[in-house]
Amino acid sequence: MKFLKFTLVLSILLFLIFFLSCFIEPALIPYPVNSVRPFVESNEFSWWLRSVDSWEVLRDFILSCDYESDLNLFGAEDYWQTPDEFFHSRTGDCDCFSWFIAYVWIRKLEAYRAYVVWIDGQIPIPHAHMYVIVEKIRGQFTAINYENVLGTVDRIEKTKDFFRWPDSRIVQVSEVAVQEETKSKSKKTEKNFCPIGEVCE
Predict the structure, then answer these.
(1) Which comes out higher in pLDDT, residue 88 or 2?
(2) pTM here?
(3) Which terminus of the chain has a smaller tally of CB atoms within 10 A, N or C?
(4) Angle (nearest 5°) at CA 144 between 139 and 150
(5) Do residues 176 and 99 make contact, with C-beta atoms less than 8 angstroms apart?
């Protein structure tokens, strides 16, 4: 009899924990330090960036690119191209598109901040996806998925609702920064790409 009572109480507790977890947003976890490799813009990429003066120009470039899995492209389950690599290949998966879009926004389109966001879930099927959030005005977060502007909300966590996956959760958020370094020998300013708080060498 005691065992049955214990089992019943334990079942109720587990149900309550599961029920409450559905209403609690997970903490935003930054990407690991080595998630994105620093790079220097090639001449071709730099020249193209000079022409980017609106979202429409960036969107037209994205529309000219092809989606392909990292496994087919690189023989690896996951490989994050730098924005310069993606510019030349014009092919990649959601994370390559996202890093590229965020970089161009923060580099050329005067965003206050730009983020790459990773969400995942299990319903209706197991899924993981990356997309971009642009903070053009402080406190207003615009979600961008490939060439589509999904909408603007007042909290990063709310952007996952644009994807209509019932159990999706934000796993990681990484702010994108452009770090400038002036090389004393050549007197040339080079652009490095790395998340906030990292040191690009």
Answers:
(1) 88
(2) 0.72
(3) N
(4) 85
(5) yes
User: Measured between alpha carbons, how far is 172 from 179 in angstroms, rounded to an integer?
Assistant: 22
Nearest-Å Rg of the Cα atoms of the chain is: 20
> What pLDDT, in 10s, does the model give residues 95-120?
999 999 999 998 898 888 899 999 99
pLDDT tens for 155-184 read: 999 999 998 888 889 988 888 877 654 333
- Both tokens of 23, joined, read 């209403």
| Cα-based distances in Å from 184 to 65, 181, 198, 200 | 36, 9, 22, 16
- Residue closest to 107 by CA, chosen among 176, 156, 60: 176
pLDDT at 32: 33
Cα separation values, 169 from 17, 20, 87, 124, 161, Å: 17, 14, 30, 14, 9
Strands 169-183 and 148-153: unpaired
Domain boundaries, the chain: 28-195
Backbone angles phi, psi at 155, to 5 degrees: -140, 140
Q: Where are the alpha helices (DSSP H) in 22-160?
A: 43-50, 55-63, 70-74, 83-89, 94-108
Class of domain 28-195: alpha beta
